[in-house]
Structures are given as C-alpha cells and as structure tokens.
Amino acid sequence: MTGCYDLHGIVPIINTPFDEKLNIDVPSLERLIEQSITDGIVGCIVPAVASEVEKLSLRERKFLVEQVASIAGRRIKVIAGVSSEEIKDAIGLAENALHLGCDGILCRVPDKLEADHQGIVRFFQELSSVGMEMLMIQDLSWNGYGMSLKTIFEMFKKISAFKCIKIETIPAGFKSSQVLAETKGELNVSSGWSLPEMIEALDRGIHGFNTTAINKPFVHIYRLHTGGNRFKAIKLFEEIVPFLAWTHQHIDISIQFLKRYCYTKGIFSTFNVRQPILPFDQYHDRCSEELIRNIISCETRLT
Predict the structure, then answer these.
(1) Would the N or C end of the chain have less CB density within 10 A of its end CB?
(2) Distance (Å) of CA 179 to CA 120, 138, 147, 235, 273
(3) How far apart are CA 106 and CA 90, in angstroms?
(4) Tens digit of pLDDT at every position of the chain (303 positions)
(5) 202, 228 Cβ separation under 8 angstroms
C-alpha cells in the first residue's frame, strides 16, 4: 500500500427509482445524480442495500450501473456494487462494471461465509483477480460485530486492490479506529448505516460517509468538521438528527422515506418500491412529511 485511497467525503448509495410499472426510471435517476453532484458528493455506490439490490435482476443491476456511469461521466467516482452469494455472479458483475469504466467495486461478505475466515479471504482473492483498481469490502452486520479484525488485516496484506472498507457493524466506531490504527490510516474507512454517529466518526478520522438521497447537509457537516469548525458541524448535525433517528428504525422504512423525499423534491416521478417490504402506513406518512419539510428547509438555508 502507498497511502490512503482518495475517496474522502460524501459517497451516497444510489436509491433505485421505479416508474408506474416498477421498471427502472432513468429520467428520475438522472435527476438524482445531477442533484447529488450539485450538492457536493465525491462519489457514489450503485447498487447496494439502499438501492433495493436484492429485488433487482442481474440484468437490471448491470443496466443501473451502466446508466449511472454514463450520467456521472468522470465528474465523480462511480463504485459498482457486485455483492452476491455466488462468486461467479459477483465476478460477472465486476467484469461488466470495469468494462463500463467504473472506478471501483463494492462487495459485501456473503452470508454463507460470515464465520468462515479462510472462506472470506478466498472469496475476495478470487474476486480481485478480475483486476479492479479498488475493491471496497462491505463489512455489514445489522446486529453484530461482522468480520474479525484478523480477517480484515490478512486481506489488507494479501489483496492489493483492497483499499477501502465500509464498516456497518455494532459497534462501528471502535472497530473503525482499530482498523485505522492497524493499517496506519492506509485503508480507507467509510461509514454507512452508522450515520447517526457521524460526529464521532469524524472525530475518529473516518474518511467517507455513505449517505443516500439526502446529501447537502452531510456535505456541509463534513466540510465544517474537516475544516476545523467542529462546533458548527455539531450544530448543523443536530438539525438532521431527527430524520436519522426516525429512519434508522429499519432499512425498509429508510428506503421508503428517502423515496418520498425524492418525490417531494421533484427528483423521482413516483415513490414506488418493490415488494416484499415493511408496511408504510399513515403514521409513517405523517412523520415522514414533517421530517421531509424540515430537511428541505435546512437545505434551502444552506443554499
């Protein structure tokens, strides 16, 4: 390794917009990418959990990556999600992404290998043989510690493309600090589902933050904190904590909230989601409408 990979700032997961027939809505996707770039993102990841990736076919996943890469051009880094339980599918998705000119590959640890140290190492060694410049490994565990530090450090030494890790575990903060310390800051560490701890993560020196459709406040918080104004970063963060606290009750609620935000902003033509997904009832609707108004008010003031 020769220094930390340059992916510092806000790097959202791209929500997948669907039209009235539940097909991928390309015009809405274009509006989302353009708005996100205007708001100051430095890269994006597509598709991942927040993209409803498990409800997309392999063909749709390739199409989605193709569209995002085409819309973004070289203005931001585009990282293609290739997560799969089957290594052949992950390799096929990675080869397609590299053919399209994507800057990197994201892949989560397969569920079937969760406790298999050598199996995880072999899986990512085989995936990296495709030849990507950057491999971001997603260490995701909704209720647990995720990969062992031993596994992470062994892959960091053995896999030259392994330059980024997305830590979404419990606890995320302390584990991130351990990874930063052991790799001497050369492994780029990003935070996703743990966004409610953003100030703590910034204090710890986390490099990137994986938001979704709402980006402008996070861009400002990141710039304030890294620019030495922690106090103002905290004050702005306090304005958006209510939406983070509410949406993080479950990923399904978060996805549906963010699509309503995009619809309210005129970015998405619908807020359709694919089934199965948790119900979003009238109480969810009322709370989301209030929170969306607050977020848009905050964004307007930041503009």
Answers:
(1) C
(2) 17, 14, 11, 29, 36
(3) 10
(4) 458 999 999 999 999 999 999 999 999 999 999 999 999 999 999 999 999 999 999 999 999 999 999 999 999 999 999 999 999 999 999 999 999 999 999 999 999 999 899 999 999 999 999 999 999 999 999 999 999 999 999 999 999 999 999 999 998 999 999 999 999 999 999 999 999 999 999 999 999 999 999 999 999 999 999 999 999 999 999 999 999 999 999 999 999 999 999 999 999 999 999 999 999 999 999 999 999 999 999 999 998
(5) no
**CATH number reported for the structural domain that contains residue 124 in this entry:** 3.20.20.70
Residue 267 lies in a domain: no
Cα–Cα distance measured from residue 288 to residue 109, given in angstroms and rounded to the nearest whole number: 32
- Can you tell me the distance from the alpha carbon of 271 to that of 293, in angstroms, rounded to the nearest whole number? 16
Give CA–CA dist 130/250, Å, rounded.
34
Structurally, the chain folds into a number of domains equal to 1
- Give a yes or no: residue 160 inside a domain: yes
Which residues form the domain of 35?
Answer: 9-227
Residue written as tokens 């397609």? Answer: 96
Residue 161 counted as domain residue = yes
pTM attached to this predicted model: 0.97
Is position 234 within any domain?
Answer: no
HEC readout, 20-60: CCCCECHHHHHHHHHHHHHHCCCEEEECCHHHCHHHCCHHH
Structure tokens given for 254: 């978060």
